[in-house]
Amino acid sequence: MKILAVCDSELNYARKLAGKLAEFCGEEKFIIQLFDLPEAILEYHRNTCVDTVLLGDNVRFRATEQFCDTLECFRRAGIGKIFVLSSEKDNSCMEYKCFYKYQAVSTLVKEILKAYSQECMSYTGMGNEPVRTEIVGIFAPVNCIEKTIWALLAGILLSKERPVLYVNLERYAGFDEILNRRHDGNLSEVFYHMLCGENKESNKIRDIVQSFCGLSYIPPIRFGGELSGISGDVFLNCINRLVELSKNRTLAEKTIILDFSGSAEEHIAMCNMCDRIFLVQRNDCITEATVRAFEKECEILSESPMGKIRKVYMSAIRERPGERFLELNLEGELGEKIKQILLEEGFVDGGTKKGAYTKAR
Q1: Distance of alpha carbon 53 from alpha carbon 48, whole angstroms
Q2: Cα angle 127-256-166, degrees, rounded to a multiple of 5
Q3: pTM, rounded to two decimals
Q4: Which DSSP category does 227 fall into?
């Protein structure tokens, strides 16, 4: 369920607006949460994805003086839709959609819901045609934590411009430690709902999907044996089903990131499914040897994936992941390198206007 956050320093006003929004749309469109401080929204967003923020122009972070700096903090956090509740009627100079707050609340709510629908249409595409879903593979011949870190950071960066679903296919991903959180449902349950052909499978899958820094993800399996009874063909069919659910807007993600490892022969169908593959390798002689062996294996295959593979290098991760591990790497040198690679590949737009989205390729 999507979350709409309302934040204004005039608490009585914010409470009245939140109540009217709930009255108009109930909980079918989104859950409405009321906040008195912008810091509280970001803290909440770290664990539960906030889809939309209605922010009063009288709200400031403690560390900022300008309202535009507050808006920028929300944009960088990966919150998709940001609307401003303005005390001024004329806000044509602002980059974000604004609503005059001191008007009839029923009229204001109608304007907000109309703008929300328009944002959703521009975000996911219009018409009855299937959405173009691109699949990005993050791969290594031998599973390593660096690959998953690279994939997560790339996913977070991409999710600032389009809806992204991250799927880790490893049998031992160490995911709970990387994100410093526990998960109830995971990928094995998603496959179970698909294989059973249950009604409303998309709703059950959406309940399992989690969010981190604006990136949607399906928690990977915790133990290798959870998928031991699933053959390679069935496994691939389940991944194809995820793609179909995205194409018909049931899941709404425009990009799916697959994080996987193994031999070229074992994953040739998975590689062929991907539009682009980033082969992540550490800067050491052992990893170089495994990559050369993988490339030789590709040479003897009838359908080699090498034409869609780009090798990217990453130093070994030696510190133990802790709180804000990913956020700190995202803001550091590694995050900048990944962003540059995504820019070179055309996945992100370096000149994107604040608050706007680029279209998927």
Answers
A1: 13
A2: 135
A3: 0.62
A4: G
